[in-house]
Amino acid sequence: MKQSKGPLILHAIFWSIILMIIVGGSIFDTTKHTMKDYCISYLVYGVINISIFYINYIFLIPELIKKRKKYFIYVLAFLLLIAVSVVAKTAIAVLYPDDVLTTVSAKGKRMEIPVHNFVIMVTFLSGFFLICSCIIKFTIDWFASERIQRNLESERREMELQFLKSQLNPHFLFNSLNNIYSLAYQKSDKTADAIMKLSEIMRYMIYESNTPTVALSKEVDYLTSYIELQKIRFKDGAYIELTLNGEIDNQKIVPLMLISFVENAFKHGVVTDPAEPVKINIIANQKILHFSVINKKNQQNKDAQGGVGLTNVERRLQLVYPDRYKLNVVNSATHYTCELMIDI
Asked: Which region, left, alpha or beta, applies to residue 237 given φ > 0 means left and ψ of -120 to 50 means alpha?
């Protein structure tokens, strides 16, 4: 997995700010400093501050808090780290009092810093670096955790979508093969045409629908092929009115999203009544896709498995168009209406 540059950038920003504070303080400092004073104050003490910062960042927090959850031991280690750094800085100050504990003003006046004041100052300074270390560590870990959660959620959604799609394809194939079997059993001349239509449909399902989105025009062609395939098996004719309006050629849609509604109309509706044909309406503009299917109900059809396809597609809608779709299903005594609007 590609490592994020966020932690490196955050560390660089922090130390750049510290460096600017040091440089700014040096510019406006009116006291005189020797080169040895600068080396001890900024180089030696700087190494100590950086060391306690990264000891806490790399070892204490990951080992005592993240892995072992030893909070009390961590607090003791935290305080011990401050104590060690204070002792080290104070020892250096005592060894070189003229450079660390004594300053000379611009007018040549010597000023001595009491040891206890120095101890208080370096204690707060050490605590500051350790607290900053904690803040940066927990901030980076939080963002890393959020990124991992987003990736896991994205992978979970993708796996679920693939699973739903794998359910849809066999579901459709099973129904189509049943239809062709019926034609073959009747030795119908339409069997060859039905197989050809099924081949075209399967080509779309296997090869062209493996992308996140497809052109709406291709999805419409797929629906048209499906309708033609279904018409072949009806001896008395199937009456379907497919109306297209708007920018069909310029819009995208998640593939295989509309087929279940049309399939449901054929499976549970009356398609052989010329007075009440199945009405399929598709309207697309730059923002909204409006899709509707209205069919007369077949009162003799009691198949309880008809809801599988619609349940599948509604779950897919929730995953790929969250808060961007409206699905309205009206199941009246005589008619069944599905109306879908998608913010595309």
From this structure: left
